[in-house]
Amino acid sequence: MEDIPQKHEVINWKLEQLLVFLQYCNYKESMKGPLFYAKILLFGEYGIIKDSKGLAIPFNSYKGALKSVKTLTGEAKKSNSSLIGLYDYLAKLDTELVDFDLKSFKSDIDNGMYFDSSIPQGYGVGSSGALVASIYDKYAINKITVLENLTRDKLLKLKEIFSIMESYFHGKSSGLDPLNSYLSLPILINSKENIEATGIPSQKEGKGAVFLLDSEQIGETEPMVSIFMNKMKNEGFRKMLSEEFSIHTDACIEDFLQGNMKSLFGNVKKLSKVVLKNFKPMIPSAFHKVWENGIQTNDYYLKLCGSGGGGYILGFTEDFEKAKNSLKDYKLELVYRF
Fold first, then answer.
1. For residue 13, what pLDDT is reported?
2. Domains in the chain: how many in total?
3. Using an 8 Å Cβ cutoff, are 36 and 166 in contact?
4. Which long-range CB contacts under 8 A does 198-203 form with residues at least 24 apart?
5. Are 216 and 180 found together in one domain?
6. 246 with 301, same domain?
7. For the whole model, what pTM was predicted?
């Protein structure tokens, strides 16, 4: 015969269920819009500007959503002001690619809408991209949805729309960050005219890892891109980009997607060397020796995360415990396990 639950147990269970329900209602009330995640460009920083390969993955540790409050204060007020600027920018856009419900957008801003985000700004993980994706999702008329058959043409159209939208923040944008955030899928960039959603190998509980190293400095995209474009005027830099940087980047992407981890680390080391030699202005000066140390010891290899200049630096290691020990004075955050 089954035990009959005591009266107080039944009451406790009902209270627990009620608490869960109230938490859910509270969550639903606070989360006015769907969540949009951060992104990490594993490979392809700067190269994708010049039509080489890239691979971006969603990073679910950080996210944002559109919310509204009656009284704006602090970060919410700052975000609301930023939305006013974005509204003015979109209202003046002259493009046939996309139309927005600007009346609803303005009304929501006036009623205290803001982007509530845990994505750190200036860290190379797509804070503005997530915001752009959320605005497109809510206000674009006849939008391309994530549920339809995403042909290459539709992906390219989305990328172009997002490029125009995100240019408000960076002056020039590839559109890749918002695309990744909007789809919440890994994106493989074969060239400017050839992008596709892709699959990546499942994570394993192995020793190897991809991680983020916090430089504890804010990086700004526009000045870094300007430095890069000036470097592109130099024939030697252009040659290095096509004959070394792009070749190593493409090899890393191929290895990662195929799960060839031994080969991957060899190619990441080569890429790390090329970046240290040719992209020094994009690497915070305090990390030049840290970068070199990884190459010399093989404990880890570093590369740029986004445009650089601060924010996160991306790390690869065959032994995460060893890397943590070598970098014990710095904040590390796990992205992916091999």
1. 42
2. 2
3. no
4. 198/55, 198/257, 200/57, 200/256, 200/257, 201/256, 201/257, 201/259, 203/336, 203/337, 203/338
5. no
6. yes
7. 0.84
Residue 202: per-residue pLDDT: 87
Phi, psi at residue 222, to the nearest 5°? -60, -50
Contact 329, 213 (CB under 8 A): no
Is position 253 within any domain? Answer: yes
Mean pLDDT per 10-residue segment, the chain (338 residues): 45 46 42 82 86 89 95 94 96 95 97 95 89 97 90 93 92 86 93 88 90 92 88 93 93 95 96 96 95 98 92 96 97 94
Report how far residue 88's alpha carbon sits from residue 167's, in angstroms, rounded to the nearest whole number: 13
Residue 131 structural domain: 36-197
The confidence score (pLDDT) of residue 148 equals: 84
CATH number at residue 94: 3.30.230
CA distance 221 to 218: 10
